[in-house]
Amino acid sequence: MGGWRRPAAHCLRLPAEGPCECDLMLTCPKFLTTSEYAPRIRARLATEQVLIGEARSRGWDREVERHEATCRRLQHLLDDLDEKTQ
How far apart are CA 45 and CA 61, in angstroms? Predict the structure, then answer.
């Protein structure tokens, strides 16, 4: 599961703004990605889908919701890049 923590692009924050403390691809308004990073985004999407199944099997409804929201954001990024989910 550790592979998704690698950057899937980069933040457009200026150095004077300090380091970004968010999960870039999910929440940062200055997040920028390209098709080069699509495989990493697809890998993160696959991981989130596994986590949805695990949370659902444990009855963790809030975790299911959280992972589903992450999947929607990741799919939106892929759609913006006109990338297919594999």
Answer: 19
Tokens matching residue 66 = 């959280």
pTM for the full predicted model: 0.71
Q: Residue 22: left (phi > 0), alpha (psi -120 to 50), or beta?
A: beta
Radius of gyration of the chain (CA): 14
Query: How many other CB atoms are there within 10 angstroms of residue 33's CB atom?
Result: 19
What pLDDT does residue 34 have? 84
* Of the candidates 19, 37, 36, the residue with the CA atom closest to the CA atom of residue 28: 19
11: nearest Cα among 85, 3, 19, 76: 19
43 near 66, Cβ under 8 Å?
Answer: no
pLDDT per residue as tens digits for the range 16-59:
766 665 565 677 777 778 888 889 889 989 999 999 999 999 99
